[in-house]
Amino acid sequence: MESQSKNALPVIGIAAWRQDVEVWGSRMNIFQIDEAYVDRIHAAEGIPMMLPHVRPGTEECVVAKIDALLLTGGDDIDPSCYGESDKGSCRNVDPGADQREIALLNAAVERGIPVLGTCRGMQLINVAFGGTLNQRITLEGRADHGPRPTLLDDILALRHPVEIVPGSRLASILGSETREVNTTHHQGVARLAQGFKVVARASDGTVEGIETEDPEKYIIGVQWHPEKLPATDNQELFDDLVSAAKS
Fold it and tell me: 74-119: per-residue pLDDT in tens?
């Protein structure tokens, strides 16, 4: 690819999260990414590049400069993106951000570069290709997705097992058909997008991994945050993304 011809290492575009934060007593809109994503791409010997929202119609110019796209976690996707109304459990929705990231994803898929989505990123992939979301899965009595704590550290400490479909690309990447993952999400895949298959589930039935059915494409989503799990055993997804970007 063009970007690889100019760089010794593949460039991995990381979609930035737009947030309204307080800076020195004033409100400011900023774009940010978790340092953990940067660390994982560095560890995989890729070059991380933060991608803010760009002017509509220029997404193709952006993806021409990268070799793979990483869609990160973040706030809930506005239900209008999948033809539904807010049932009262969505948090911090930003339909403008959703549309910009979906456009970036579509441009990346059109160009044929690898795409990995984590948590919100997986949900965005599903929505972009016509799927829908369950707006609240954290309910009393659910085996793996009960009510969430209020503090981020406590949320990140939650774990549950997932079963991975044998023979799937995800199973091949992880080298296992089971994995203990974190439980950070309160929404999940409802109707699966056409052209995709479920490749991982929690014991309560929650979809934890999806991938394209097209063997010529690399589009994978996982519902957990691998960058927030111990690096030794959870680097594989980032290593494989960078490896795919090289080719």
Answer: 888 999 999 998 887 777 888 899 999 999 999 999 999 999 999 9
Taking the C-alpha atoms of residue 90 and residue 67, their distance in angstroms, rounded to an integer, is 33
Nearest to 160 by CA among 211, 223, 221: 223
- Ramachandran category for residue 178: left, alpha or beta (phi over 0 → left; psi -120 to 50 → alpha): beta
Query: In the annotation, is 61 catalytic?
Result: no
Per the residue annotation, which of 59, 119, 185, 186 is the catalytic one?
Answer: 119
Centroid of chain to Cα 68: 13
Residue-level length of the chain: 247
The answer to whether the CB of 193 falls within 8 A of the CB of 126 is: yes
Alpha-carbon radius of gyration of the chain: 17
Q: Which residues, 6 or more positions from 52, have their beta carbon under 8 angstroms from its beta carbon?
A: 16, 18, 31
Does residue 7 carry a pLDDT above 90?
no
Sequential DSSP letters for 78-120: PGGGGT----S---S--HHHHHHHHHHHHHHHHHT--EEEETH
Phi, psi (rounded to 5 degrees) for 133: -120, 150
Whether 145 sits among the annotated catalytic residues: the reply is: no
- Rounded to an integer, what distance in angstroms lies between the CA atom of residue 227 and that of residue 237? 9
Q: Catalytic: 160?
A: no
Q: Are 229 and 156 contacting, i.e. CB atoms less than 8 angstroms apart?
A: no
Q: For 127-145, what is the HEC assignment?
A: HHCCCCEECCCCCCCCCCC
The token pair that represents 173 in the structure block: 């990447």
Three-class SS string for 211-245?
EECCCCCCEEEECCCHHHCCHHHHCHHHHHHHHHH
